[in-house]
Design a protein that fits this description.
6-stranded antiparallel sheet; FAD/NAD(P)-binding domain; alpha/beta; 12 helices; 7-stranded mixed sheet; globular; 531 residues
Amino acid sequence: MDNFDADVVIVGSGFLGTFVALELLNAGKSVIILEAGPELADWKVTENYRSSPRKGNFNDPFGEVPWAPNSQTKGYFTSDSGDVSNLPGGTLRIAGGTSRHWTGSTWRLLPEDMKLKTLYGVGRDWPVTYNELEPFVTEAEYYIGVNGVDSDDQSGGPYSHYPPRSKPFPLPPEAKSYMTQYIQMQLAEVGMKVVHAPCTRISQPYKGRPGCIGNNMCQPHCPIGARYSGIMSLKDATDKGARLITHAVVDRIIKGEGNRIKALSYQTPEGERKTVTAKKFVIAGHGYETPKLLLLNDIANSSSMVGRNLMCHPGLNFSFLAELELWQGRGPFISGAILDRRNLPDRDKLASLHYDILNINWTTEITAELLKRKKWLGTSLDEKIRRDLSQYIFIQSMAEDLPEPGNNVTINRNWKDSLGLPGLHIHYRLNDYTRALKLRIENDYANMLRAIRGDRLSPPQNWNAEDHIMGTVIMGDNPADSVVDRNLRTHDHENLFLVTTGVFPSSSSVNPTLTAMALAIRAGRLIAGEV
């Protein structure tokens, strides 16, 4: 009988890897979690953020190590993204994963989002249905604590209680900021509906966490732990017996008989090589790092789809000054959203779309812009900063993307980290389906500006990608055009699973994390039953 280091080895210590680990541990299985980056306590992240002059760099408070580069590491990513900016986005390699600096937005997909090809003739369908996944979505909501309004129609339609829910939200919504209330009232006059944005920035104490008190540091880091973080599920996993190995840079996947995975090999920061064996293996890295590891080893790629079909939630952003002092920047980052364009009948021609009303303190950005203009000095500058801050509104759009094989992430061997491992290159072009939204977005922003009686600061210009990387190890029933099946098992290797937002066959127009958590719970339970 073979001797293994653990029943299951998981690469990646973020939300998804730890959610899989918890299912295995609850079933009495042994688990090793390998993490390339270091551990960093939450209190240290708070101090780093407060002292950092780079408030717009959400990776900065988490530091950087030469053996685990991130998206802000100079040279690690190169990008050819046309008129779409902000790629590669904000990726971290640290205990707790990139989820250490997520906003906490927890939208559900709509049933329609998962049947895009069938209903609208574009993109791909998911091989798993909304009804199959819904119980796991609910489990995730109750595990992390999600605020929400049960009666809302999150499709943007005129109905209530949609998409279907098997249980109500575990927590009531937080109070709306004055800014959100004002925008909600004004936009109603032009037929736009502002609804609550569900999130895990909890409104009241829940499972030992305090309710949000409005620090407005949700991204990159909640200083009191009101927003759920991957470091929390990681602690739950290690408390239950998972063995966490940090500074473990996995770069080799070793095959055995029958195309099964036999072992994983990793390097320490000093270049020492170690190997771990298991019955099953789970790669739960970021949507960039997971395909990178597979490409380095020519694993799970008989379809040639590894690294392809990159989706990133492009959008056009808009800022203006309201006629009243609204003082955004108090409370959570996002408390309101506009979903009117999320699931319209013309979705066969125009992508799904939603708007977030951001509630962020923009002092640094506004001050820098005013200093560039060199029109104000001393007291006049102070007064101008205060006036602009009090009236400033920023709204972002987030659009549906389509999985296109030509949009991809590939290995860049012209760059090396401290262990000699290569960097990554992103090639991305906005597809016509999403680009066609530009006129709709501009018209919507014009209506918002008129309703709020604001002064335009900057018209929507370049498309901006969000930090939501999907499609790069795409899910599907057909091994010829997908990497994993409906259970996240690779088509090529019976004992290798990929648990990452990279498996998404469609992007919808909302944040993917809650759905990815549900997939992780479902996959973890299946793996536990097989080990």
